[in-house]
Amino acid sequence: MTDLVLILGAVLLAAAGGEAFLKSILGAAIHLRVPKIVVATTLAAFVTSAPELTVSTVAALAGQPEC
Fold first, then answer.
1. Which residue blocks in 1-67 are alpha helix, DSSP H?
2. Which cellular compartments is it found in (predicted)?
3. Are residues 29 and 42 in the same domain?
């Protein structure tokens, strides 16, 4: 039961954080007069590449080749 509560709490925090992040990014786009589609495309590209970038960085810092 405790695990379920922790998982649900983590999901709620992730959703709230994602919503706040999205609002701030879109606010910055409006302030800088950058089209929202440019911001959305760039953000989507970064988010989909972030896990591989993290794995590669950790492997390089550990001195182990990435397999």
1. 2-32, 36-62
2. Membrane
3. no
> Are 15 and 43 found together in one domain?
no
Residue 66: pLDDT band (50, 70, 90) is: low
Total domains in the chain come to 2
The single-letter code of the amino acid at 48 is: T
Q: How far is CA 10 from the centre of its chain?
A: 15
- 23: domain range? 1-33
Region of residue 33 (left: phi > 0; alpha: psi -120 to 50; beta: else): left
Element (H, E) at 67: none
Same domain, 19 and 39: no
